[in-house]
Batch of 2 targets.
Target 1
Amino acid sequence: MNVKYFNSYESMSYFAASKLIRRIREIKQPVLGLATGSTPLGLYQELVSQHNKGVVSFENVITFNLDEYVGLGDSHAKSYKTYMRQHLIDKVDFNPKSFHIPNGQAIDLEKECNRYESLLLEKGPIDVQVLGLGHNGHIGFNEPGTPFKTKTHVVELDITTREANSRYFSSVSEVPKRSITMGIKSILRSDEILLLVSGEGKASALDKLLSHEISKEFPASALHRHDAVTVLVDQSSL
Ligand code: F6R
């Protein structure tokens, strides 16, 4: 695990964007794994800005998002699908058919998880997977206790996760209780992983990760089992 420290959120985001752009230009049909939340917003802003300058095209890029809230989808302002459209997909030259995210409104959630996992296997492996770090060590929405062998599945969100994400909703009771998430196994299949760490209160999760102890009670520790992980730390925000 390679760890890089940055003096600002902007420099961390710029570095992450440059790395993705390099891969997009090297690979004929790049497959990116994407996260939502506050951490990657600067990265997406930078990708849009580089696209507007003519530096990068997303025409041939395929994307897979990590997760989606159960019950939210196309028409909901707080769905992760809407977030991705607002911050990246609708702002660049993506082929909409190449943007994949679990369908949180599927009637049969089990079937939806299997469909998403099969699509990942068919189109993958993911060339670069972007991750954020949850305060409790979650990656995707794999909460503490999730076995490392899990594939895409439905998860009951931790109350701490719902509280942390309530900043996007009018109250914590509005935050959905479940989500569909790529599993730890699905994430570890990626060729390369970029874990972005930024935001108040992430210092203890980062310390835990860097202690190198591997435990399913701290899902991000599974990343020690992958040999191409770079952790980008915005040390100004910790
Ligand atoms: C989001 C996701 C989560 C977030 C994590 C950190 O798609 O999978 O694991 O990356 O909760 O969220 P922020 O960046 O808001 O601190």
Target 2
Amino acid sequence: MSTYHAFTEAEAIAYARRMPDLFAPDSELTSREIGDGNLNLVFHISEPATGKSIILKQALPYAKVVGESWPLTLDRARIESETLMIQESLCPDLVPHVFAYEKDLALTVMQDLSDHVIMRKGLIEGNRYPLFAQHIARFLANTLFYTSDLGMNQQEKKERVKQFINPELCKITEDLIFDDPYRDADTNNVPAAIRDAVETIWNDRELHLEVAILRNGFLTHAEALLHGDLHTGSIFIKEDSTKVIDPEFAYYGPMGFDIGAVFANLLLNYAAQEGWSRDEQARADYRGYLLGTIKEIWSLFHGEFRSLWSLYGVDRVQQSESYQDWYMQRLLRDTIGYAGCKMVRRVHGLAQVADINQLQDEAAKERAQRLALQIGTSLIKHHRHAQSIDELLDIAIQAVK
Ligand code: SR1
Ligand code: MG
């Protein structure tokens, strides 16, 4: 048993050397800490002679993005590794393989994905990923269906809910997504140029009601085992492969929260095209690609989820067509509402996105921020009335007209 302490690069090498069957005991290894997220250390260990490599991910006992003043449970490393193993059993090609998890060190040893890029970076560079919609729709359909009361034994599911109680990480989401952006909170990071638009949000009672309804769903609706933080920084991608990483926020929550997270991050990039595209035609083309991807994801997800349900549904009472229709419409509405919340928090909340923040042209950045707020708030306000995914797309299209 090892006592918890944050690893140095040299300690990461020493640990990797002890892993059976990975590296020869006397081989030369290199180590680089490459973590650029908000919470953890990530060591890339490689053996130059053979080209073999692995990742050691270690949770820190505080939120790295803020510092030691924000303590954070190490149990999130267990949640992450156990979630990855469940997801691997459902869609093995869409998540990294976990070689080992060591509780006392809050350490997970996993497959190295350095031949992929973080999707947020790929989108900022203007790349297109033709297989992404298929991959993420399959990931969402399988992970959400088979961990819910529709697709697994309902008593075992209750045990799973217990296994994935994740109060500290959920609290971050409850505050940073569903509370702080709607008031003048210390955690916010309000860009001076858009203060007027942010203050409008702080005073918008109609909006606050819709956010309260969505927050209630996040607090109480233990529907499926969610990834819990499914933004484009949690996706490694290349032309022919997609890998979903980092499920440390996993817990039993409303399915629409994960689907909405994917849509929100595509829409944040859509807003950021104000500054990234070379000219109007390129901007319209790339925005068309992003909206087409959202539409394709919803359509493939919807088809796959319903077909899993019809073939493998475990609950006779929930099997009827009309119940499935009702359920999918509610899921669409949740998805649209959560997508809106996930956009708004990234504009003036604590943790923002590179798509917008890396824009060098201040005027373009301001236009992108205002657009993201406009689309996000419209999605939140519309969500309980939505009938079709086209309404989400229309909101995005109207916002740039
Ligand atoms: C204090 S953690 C801030 C954000 O980083 C994570 O990726 C989550 O999105 C969280 O809200
Ligand atoms: Mg993360």
